[in-house]
Amino acid sequence: MISFKNHRTRALGALILIVAYLFLPGSSGAAIPDPARFFLVSVGCGDPDNITLKAQKTIEKSQLVFCSEKMKALWPDMLKGKECLPRPTVAIHKYFVALKTGFSVPGTVIKKEKQVQVKKALETFIQTVTQAVKSGKTVCLLDHGDPCIYGPYIWTMEMLKDLDPKVIPGVSSLNAANAALGKGLTFGNASHSAILTNAADLKKDYPGADTLDRMAATRSSMVIFTMFTDFEKLVGELKARYPEQTPMALVVKAGYDAQERVIQGTLADIVSRVKAAGKIPFEHLIYLGDFMETVE
Ligand SMILES: C[S@@+](CC[C@H](N)C(=O)[O-])C[C@H]1O[C@@H](n2cnc3c(N)ncnc32)[C@H](O)[C@@H]1O
Fold first, then answer.
1. What are the tens digits of pLDDT across the range 267-282?
2. What is the pTM of this model?
3. In this structure, what CATH number is given to the domain that contains residue 166?
4. Is any ligand 1 atom within 6 A of the Cβ of residue 260?
5. Is residue 226 part of a domain?
């Protein structure tokens, strides 16, 4: 039989164990203080409600947020009271490889004045973030879609690596456009794979291994992130490599309920269908592949 004293000792022991479980670092469920650091946060793609809860929580705990004016207008409550700064120039992304080598690679065609500007912008950003994190602030930079797919700010992971930076993932235009099509991107007839590309092979003297010839040889579904791709040139090149009846589609403004549209056709007629659809905004993805075969 357990004496009262034993019972009390056991109860106390149990209490100590529960407290240790809850508060000691390393135990699951423990309240580990989150260190101040830098986050590259996706706000998703399209309508503002495509943001994830995790992104919202990360922004809420941040004191300094790099974002656009449009973002401030879309999430006023979430950004209220935060110190907001404009995001660093996209020229850093554009010239990142040249920047890392100090613009020393022969053939780098960037005016000296521009080099100085971009270098300064990068240094100022690194300095601002580093000082903020070192003073105990959590800092985030807001990006659209998946920051790891053709994202213009992924360089921050490399340049701020000493601060243990993290990406908070989000809905990519790829996810939103897949949903708009309502088809299994990876369930083609000829292949069960998908290629994400920016069709860089269309550029003169592109040195990459991902040539259209090689990609086409796999017969995989293809998703083309456009970034101002010459559409007619692209279709011409694809026609030389795929059967003309291969389904092709454009998903425009994916993730925006009121503006999203799908222009569907085949390699043979997609150019005339796109022309008939009027002006196509920057935000569109191009799809090619027999996985869309049953779509009317
Ligand atoms: C610089 S990339 C960024 C992609 C982004 N990281 C993502 O995961 O969606 C920009 C390209 O993404 C595509 N894109 C971005 N937003 C889109 C949208 N709402 N609908 C369709 N395509 C979109 C377009 O092809 C555009 O040229």
1. 999 999 999 999 999 9
2. 0.87
3. 3.40.1010.10
4. no
5. yes
